[in-house]
Amino acid sequence: MIRTRFTEAFGVEHPIVQGGMMWVGTADLVAPVAEAGALGFLTALTQPTPEALVKEIARVRERTDRIFGVNLTILPSINPPPYAEYRRAIIESGVGIVETAGYKPQEHVDDFKAAGVKVIHKCTAVRHALSAERMGVDAISIDGFECAGHPGEDDIPGLILIPAAADKVKVPILASGGFGDGRGLAAALALGADGINMGTRFCATREAPIHDNFKAAMVANDERATELIFRSYRNSARVARNRIAEQVVAIEREGRPFEDVAALVKGARGREGLVSGDTDHGIWTAGMVQGLIHDIPTVRELVERIVEEAEAIIARRLAAMLSPEPVLA
Prior knowledge:
It is an enzyme of class 1 (oxidoreductase). The chain is of the alpha/beta class. Helices cover 41% and strands 14% of the residues. The chain starts with a helix and ends in a 9-residue tail after the last helix.
């Protein structure tokens, strides 16, 4: 068993996290993740109202008595969701761990901490990680450029970003972006992280609440099968390469405004595709880690395999490289 600062501080069996994912982070995925000994996060804003979130939290508890959390992502918006009401629903439901992400989380961190909730903040830069640490968060999830979703605008890959963060951040660190197997977990630990945070890899599991066509696409795709959209709007997002993503990139290259792509990238359109199975209907989030996805296991099979692979790498492959005898020049 691999014990780290993260597993000790958060009370989970394995140093593996299923981060919040819009439309995917529901009880159907989170409960099996918890049962497998990892830490799963419901995605608050997938639920249409705070009241619906309370019911979804209850659905997880009907299926597991293990630890799980809720993700609350704060993004600038013309008509923002009622974040304070979602926050109150999380606290009053007795959830003990929250993953925050996005814009100016101080108000949320303060409220969660006052209620005794542990906070993991997702960020894409060391400077943001240090800012979150000053706010009082309990752990950092640091997203490298390989990640699905929003990789930030600095374009720093995990091989540099993770140890750079580990050099300066004092609270436990989760490595995120490009992780999908035991090699990644062992590498993350070697780079100074205390665990890994995976999104795309958990989407390609039997329990993930998306159409099987998307899971098959992730198996078929390689590490090149993503597009970076919204670069010209300074809000970069990594999504799976498909007809819609290619259209968005082409429009951006023409220098056209966001209004010209808005209809193509609507969240409702993407969700319709996840339900219908049409992988070209809208944009859908996936990372470069697709190149490491070769099957669609159960969540338990995936978690156990990752841990066993990492343990074998650490205890056997790497240990065998330490020569008991001095090597002569």
